[in-house]
Specification:
The complex is a heterodimer of chains A (229) and B (448). With 229 residues, chain A is an alpha/beta fold. Chain A is built from seven helices and ten strands. The mean pLDDT of chain A is 90. Chain B has 448 residues and is of the alpha+beta class. Helices cover 51% and strands 16% of the residues of chain B. Chain B has a six-stranded mixed beta barrel with strand order 3-4-9-6-8-7. Classes of the chains: A alpha/beta (229), B alpha+beta (448). The interface between A and B is medium-sized, with 30 and 23 residues.
């Protein structure tokens, strides 16, 4: 394990959902993990294992949990809703299973979307760089609905990269792709990781998780074992 | 936050739902167009009436009797003794039939000789049976006016034959009379009536002159407030007021028309007359049996009536704006639901709650603003065409004597309309926008 300060430090995270019938379901039963800079970690688990809950917490989308979470050495449990939005915008790049691109909008505009909320003078330049990094420079002005699934996910990756986040958080990024495309995308993730970007990947597929340097298996709200390659 | 990026994204979203967006803004378009054209019409009407009243002269002072019990809150415009609409005194619309005459001839003399009054004349009229000879069986009803020698210049009348009433003829109640050009034609045809006798209820009078209206452009009598006025002064007789009092069997006058020497002294002269008459009659403003009105008073009354009219029209039109606003709210709620995942995505990418509020407010304001601008354009278009419509609708385009009613749409109206449409966007867009901002990002991202 690299001996630097962890980017993500989770300690004894517990998450309980209360359904309308006042039934309590514990999705996370004391999860602890740390991810160091430059790591590529895969969190595995079947549906209902709590990986979506964990992903929401890591992505700062859910702040209602017990335990402590430090991101880049900063305790995020004390942060306000607005501060969390700020941290998300700067530190976390999201990649979703359904790509979540804006329709009838060009590749460039999609990649520029995060800069709507935090802009600087070199937005355009960084967007072009990110697009180049995912290999879509030929499609900059194409509308996203003219692209293939793999290309769409590349747009989403470029969108996640534009703010130079501390971590890329990919939630089942290959779930909507065919086998060959899925592996192309994973190769891209690997390349991005090699350039120094920390990646947390959530997946239920073993062959996809193989691309990560470390695998964590979530089972019934707890980590089962840790495998380091 | 990059507002230009948000505007661009909002416009794109509006554009990508063209049919829905245009149907939605239609409500606002209709509302704004209705407000613009109705307010424009009201203003046009107001301008027309005001300018017509102003053209009658702003130095006019009307003194008229009134029923102390039936007093109106304002100093009412002067009403003659005659029937409704019958040869209304200048600057007044005569609806005041049957008021007891309360002004003495001595008071009239006082007014006439007052400093600051340049011309004055009683303005009395009554319907009298007129015959050409004492033995004739067929009498026609004519309006007979009791006046002073200033009457003709006050009323813009000119003598075409014979002479005006002399001071002594008026003072002595001489049985002499002037005949209006139309009445002369009816009774005497092409013959000159001057020097001929005429019988008012069997009393013999001598015609000493013929008069006609100076204003050749209008066939209406002076001050004849309504198109094609029923009783025109040119089809009536005019005699001295002393003679008229005998003829009508009255002791006092009920209406005096006067002109102040300049606009500056109108108010002071009017109040001097009022004070004098109140003290003579031993009354206060609350139980006054006489009213002194200036054209300015009339102008104010008419202005307040027409602006009330305009406001009412605008209010009715505003109801359609509210309906349009509800349409906006409805469609924004649909949009928020449809774009739940996008909202979740934006929150994940760093949008704060208020950014989401701004985005949807911006979208609804853009919708209503576009609607407002189209509405203004249609309102102006409709307004300019309405002018001709109104003209054909109101008896040849003559409202209160001559000029066309122009629909007036000024910059203020346009700015207010644009402002109102933005306000509608904010008011009716706020709830959907707040709803959007309160979505939980985790659930929003999972929304199918």
């Amino acid at each position: 394990m690299p001996a630097s300060t962890p980017v993500i430090e989770l300690k004894d995270i517990q998450k309980t959902y209360r359904t309308s019938a006042n039934v309590e379901t514990q999705a996370l039963k004391g999860v602890s993990m740390s991810v160091h800079r430059g790591e590529f970690v895969a969190i595995m688990g079947s549906s209902g294992s709590g990986k979506s809950s964990l992903m929401s917490i890591i992505g700062l989308l859910d702040r209602h949990f017990e335990g402590t979470y430090e991101l880049d050495g900063q305790d995020i449990t004390e942060l306000s809703d607005n501060d969390l939005a700020e941290v998300r915008s700067q530190s976390i790049g999201f990649i979703f299973q359904q790509f979540n691109l804006l329709k009838r909008t060009t590749v460039l505009e999609n990649v520029l979307l995060p800069t709507t909320y935090k802009s600087s003078s070199d937005d355009e330049h960084r967007a072009l760089q990110a697009i180049k990094q995912v290999g879509l420079e030929k499609y900059i002005n194409n509308h996203t609905n003219q692209l293939s699934g793999g290309q769409m996910q590349r747009v989403a990756i470029a969108r996640a990269l534009i703010m130079n986040p501390s971590i890329l958080l990919a939630d089942e990024p290959t779930g909507n792709l065919d086998h060959a495309t899925a592996h192309e995308i994973m190769e891209l993730f690997k390349a991005i990781n090699r350039q120094g970007t920390t990646i947390v990947l959530i997946t239920h597929e073993d062959d996809i998780a193989e691309y990560a340097g470390r695998k964590l298996s979530l089972y019934d709200g707890q980590f089962k074992k840790e495998t380091t390659r | 936050m990059k507002i230009t990026a948000l505007i661009k994204q909002s416009l794109k979203s509006i554009w990508s739902n063209k049919i829905r967006s245009s149907l939605t803004i239609l409500g606002v378009v209709i509302g704004i167009a209705a407000v613009i054209s109705l307010v424009g019409l009201g203003k046009g009407l107001q301008d027309n009436v005001t300018s017509n009243i102003s053209s009658l002269g702003t130095t006019d002072v009307t003194i008229s009797s009134q029923d102390p019990d039936r007093q109106t809150s304002e100093r009412g415009p002067g009403g003659g003794d005659g029937p409704i609409g019958g040869g209304a005194p200048r600057g007044g619309f005569s609806f005041g039939g049957g008021t007891t005459a309360t002004i003495t001839t001595a008071e009239y003399e006082y007014i006439k000789n007052l400093d600051g009054i340049s011309e004055a004349s009683p303005n009395e009229s009554t319907q009298i049976a007129v015959t050409k000879s004492s033995t004739s069986d067929t009498a026609s009803q004519y309006q007979v006016y009791g006046v002073d020698s200033d009457y003709f210049s006050l009323e813009d009348l000119q003598l075409t034959d014979g002479k005006n009433l002399s001071v002594s003829q008026i003072a002595n109640a001489s049985k002499v009379v002037l005949i209006g050009s139309d009445a002369a034609e009816e009774l005497f045809g092409d013959e000159s009536p001057v020097g001929k006798p005429i019988y008012f209820s069997d009393t013999k009078y001598t015609i000493i002159g013929v008069f006609e209206s100076s204003d050749t452009s209008s066939s209406d009598g002076p001050g004849g407030g309504f198109p094609g006025g029923v009783n025109r002064v040119t089809s009536s007789f005019v005699t001295g007021y002393e003679a008229w009092l005998k003829l009508a069997d009255k002791k006092k006058l009920s209406s005096i028309t006067a002109k102040a020497s300049s606009e500056d002294v109108v108010d002071s002269v009017a109040s001097t007359i009022e004070t004098k008459l109140y003290s003579d009659h031993d009354v206060t403003e609350d139980d006054a049996d006489v009213a002194v009105a200036t054209s300015k008073d009339l102008l104010n009354t008419v202005s307040s009536v027409t602006s009330g009219f305009t406001t009412t029209l605008a209010g009715i039109a505003a109801i359609s704006l509210v309906v349009g606003g509800i349409g906006i709210m409805n469609i924004m709620l649909v949009t928020v639901t449809e774009r739940t995942r996008e909202i979740g995505l934006r929150r994940a990418l760093g949008a704060k709650r208020r950014h989401v509020v701004y985005q949807f407010l911006l979208e609804s304001v853009l919708l209503t603003l576009i609607g407002g601008l189209i509405g203004v354009a249609i309102g102006i278009l409709f307004g300019s065409n309405a002018t001709s419509l109104i003209s054909s609708g109101f008896g040849g385009g003559r409202l209160a004597g001559g000029s066309d009613t122009q629909v007036v749409i000024d910059m203020t109206t346009i700015l207010i309309a644009v402002g109102v449409s933005c306000a509608i966007g904010i008011v009716f867009g706020l709830f959907p926008a707040l709803k959007a901002s309160r979505l939980d990002p985790v659930e929003a991202l999972r929304y199918e």
